[in-house]
C-alpha cells in the first residue's frame, strides 16, 4: 500500500524518477556527449543523485503528511512511529532500486557502456546509500514543522555533496577523447 | 447500563501558561453515549485526546477499558476507535484501500465490504479520498473508527462544518451504533446533537465540568422554565421586565431580553400591556422550551457559540 501510495505521489515521481533520469540524460547525453567511457565515469554521480532523491522526496512527503494531519490519524491506530518510518525507508528502497537498474540498462543499451566494474558492490552501496539518505530525510522531517523549513534544511544538507560532485565532474572533450 | 468502562479523575493539562483542562472528572458506563458539550476552546478535544492516548496529562487518573492510556497505549489502541476533529488521509488513497489498510493494523477487524455498505460508500469504493465530499469523508472517518469493532468509540465533533442534511445522516449512524449498545464518547458544541444523541452530557467550560447528567436532568435542574426571547424597538430595563407578572427572571443578551417564565401566556400578556403603557413596540418574540443552551447560559452567562 505504501508503495502504491508513493507511486501516486507527484513529488515522489519528480524526485525519484523524473529528476534522476533528467540528470542521467543531461550527464550522459550532454556532458559526456554519449561517449561510453565518459558515460561510465559519470554514471557514479548520476546514481548518487538518484540515491539523494530519496532524501528530498521522503522528508517533503512526511512533512506534508504532518501538515495535513494525516500522521495524527495513524497515531490513534496501533501503528507505531517506528513502523511508519521503517515502511517509508523500505518502500523507498524498493522504488529506488529499479530506477538505478533502469539507469544501468540505459547506460548499457543506449550509450553502449560495456564495463560497470563490480556491479554487486555498486548495487549494495546504492541500497545502503538509499537507506541512509532516506533515514536522513526522516530526521529532517522530524525536526522541521513546515515544508519551507524542510526545503531550507534539505538545501543545506544536499548542497555540500552536490557541490562536491559538481567539482569533480569532468566535462572536457579532450578528456573524453583520451579514453 | 452496567459498570464504568471509562473513568477520568481530576484530569489536568496545560499548554504553556494556558490551563486547557482543570480537574475534569467523569465516568462513562458500558453501552452509553456520553457527550462532552462546550464552546470552542473549552478543553473537550484535549480531554478526548488524553483518553485516546495521543496526549499525556499533567496530572489526574484515566482508565479506558481498564487500561491506562499512557502505560498501555498499544493495547488500548486495539480496544478503541476514533474519529478525530479533522480526519485527514492521503489524497491519493482510495476508500476501499483506506478501510483495508486500517483493518490490517488490528488483530480483530470487521469486513471492509460490510463497512462500505453500512456507511453508504459502496459507489465510492474506488474514489480517491481527495475527491470525496465533506460528508463522505466524515462517513469514511466513522467507518475507519469501526474497523476493529472497538469497545469504546471516540467521536470528536463528528458533524462540525457539515451541512444540516449530512449532519442528520451522521446522527442516524450514531443512533444506529447506540442501538447496538456501543459505548461512545463524543464532543460537540451543537446543543441539538447532545440532546438527541447523548444518554449523559458533561458541560465543559474553561477546562472544567460545570454540569453533568442526562439532558433531561440538566434541563430540570435549570428550573424547567420556558424562555421567552423578545426584541424591543426601544431599550427597556431588565429589572422592570423581571417584575412583570409570570416572569421570574430577565437578562439582556446581544440586544434581546430573555425572560424566564413559569407561566408563559401570563408573562406575554403582562409584557404586551407593559409595552403599550411605555409606548414601546415588540419587534420579535420567540418562545423556547428549556434546552441545554439554557442550562449553559444559566451556568456561564454566555451562549455556547459566543
Can you tell me about this structure?
The complex is a heterodimer of chains A (179) and B (306). Chain A is mainly alpha-helical and 179 residues long. Chain A has helices at 2-7, 10-31, 36-67, 70-75, 81-109, 119-143, 147-167, 173-178. Chain A is elongated. The termini of chain A are far apart. Chain B is α/β, with parallel strands linked by helices and 306 residues long. Chain B folds into 2 domains: 4-215, Rossmann fold (3-Layer(aba) Sandwich), CATH 3.40.50; 225-289, YebC, transcriptional regulation domain (Alpha-Beta Plaits), CATH 3.30.70.980. Chain B has helices at residues 44-52, 73-79, 95-103, 112-118, 134-145, 164-179, 191-197, 215-221, 238-242, 264-278, 292-300; strands at residues 4-15, 18-29, 33-37, 59-64, 80-83, 152-156, 183-188, 200-205, 208-213, 226-232, 247-253, 256-261, 282-288. The longest helix of chain B has 16 residues, at 164-179. Chain B is elongated, with a radius of gyration of 23 Å. The two termini of chain B are 35 Å apart. The A-B interface holds A 1, 4-5, 8-9, 65, 68-70, 72-73, 75-80 and B 52-54, 74, 77-78, 80, 82, 84, 86-90, 92-93, 97, 100-102, 105-106, 144.
Amino acid at each position: 500500500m505504501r508503495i502504491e501510495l508513493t507511486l501516486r505521489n507527484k513529488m515522489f515521481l519528480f524526485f525519484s524518477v523524473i529528476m534522476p533520469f533528467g540528470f542521467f540524460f543531461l550527464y550522459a547525453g550532454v556532458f559526456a556527449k554519449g561517449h561510453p567511457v565518459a558515460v561510465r565515469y559519470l554514471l557514479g554521480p548520476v546514481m548518487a543523485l538518484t540515491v539523494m532523491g530519496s532524501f528530498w522526496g521522503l522528508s517533503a512527503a512526511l512533512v506534508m503528511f504532518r501538515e495535513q494531519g494525516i500522521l495524527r490519524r495513524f497515531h490513534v491506530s496501533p501503528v507505531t512511529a517506528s513502523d511508519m518510518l521503517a515502511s517509508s525507508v523500505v518502500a523507498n528502497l524498493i522504488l529506488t532500486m529499479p530506477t538505478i537498474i533502469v539507469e544501468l540498462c540505459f547506460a548499457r543499451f543506449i550509450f553502449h557502456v560495456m564495463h560497470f566494474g563490480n556491479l554487486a558492490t555498486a548495487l549494495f552501496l546504492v541500497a545502503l546509500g538509499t537507506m541512509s539518505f532516506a533515514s536522513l530525510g526522516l530526521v529532517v522531517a522530524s525536526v522541521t514543522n513546515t515544508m519551507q523549513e524542510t526545503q531550507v534544511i534539505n538545501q543545506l544538507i544536499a548542497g555540500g555533496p552536490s557541490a562536491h560532485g559538481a567539482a569533480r565532474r569532468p566535462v572536457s572533450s579532450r578528456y573524453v577523447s583520451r579514453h | 447500563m452496567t459498570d464504568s468502562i471509562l473513568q477520568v479523575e481530576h484530569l489536568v493539562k496545560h499548554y504553556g501558561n494556558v490551563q486547557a483542562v482543570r480537574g475534569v472528572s467523569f465516568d462513562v458506563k458500558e453501552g452509553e453515549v456520553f457527550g462532552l458539550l462546550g464552546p470552542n476552546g473549552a478543553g473537550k478535544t484535549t480531554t478526548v485526546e488524553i483518553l485516546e492516548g495521543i496526549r499525556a496529562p499533567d496530572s489526574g487518573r484515566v482508565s479506558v477499558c481498564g487500561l491506562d492510556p499512557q502505560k498501555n497505549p498499544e493495547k488500548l489502541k486495539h480496544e478503541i476507535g476514533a474519529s478525530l476533529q479533522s480526519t485527514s488521509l492521503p489524497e491519493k488513497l482510495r476508500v476501499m484501500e483506506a478501510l483495508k489498510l486500517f483493518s490490517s493494523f488490528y488483530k480483530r477487524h470487521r469486513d471492509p465490504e460490510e463497512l462500505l455498505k453500512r456507511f453508504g460508500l459502496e459507489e465510492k469504493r474506488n474514489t480517491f479520498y481527495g475527491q470525496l465530499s465533506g460528508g463522505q469523508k466524515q462517513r469514511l472517518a466513522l467507518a475507519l473508527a469501526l474497523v476493529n469493532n472497538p469497545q469504546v468509540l471516540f467521536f470528536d465533533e463528528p458533524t462540525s462544518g457539515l451541512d444540516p442534511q449530512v449532519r442528520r445522516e451522521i446522527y442516524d449512524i450514531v443512533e444506529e451504533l447506540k442501538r447496538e449498545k456501543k459505548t461512545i464518547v463524543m464532543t460537540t458544541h451543537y446543543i441539538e446533537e447532545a440532546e438527541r444523541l447523548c444518554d449523559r452530557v458533561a458541560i465543559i467550560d474553561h477546562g472544567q465540568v460545570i454540569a453533568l447528567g442526562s439532558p433531561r436532568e440538566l434541563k430540570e435542574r435549570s428550573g424547567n422554565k420556558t424562555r421567552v426571547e423578545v426584541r424591543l424597538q426601544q431599550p427597556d430595563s431588565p429589572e422592570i421586565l423581571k417584575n412583570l407578572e409570570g416572569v421570574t427572571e430577565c437578562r439582556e443578551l446581544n440586544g434581546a431580553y430573555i425572560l424566564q417564565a413559569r407561566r408563559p401566556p401570563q408573562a406575554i400578556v403582562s409584557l404586551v400591556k407593559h409595552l403599550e403603557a411605555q409606548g414601546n413596540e415588540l419587534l420579535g418574540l420567540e418562545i423556547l422550551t428549556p434546552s441545554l443552551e439554557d442550562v449553559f447560559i444559566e451556568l456561564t452567562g454566555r451562549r455556547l457559540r459566543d
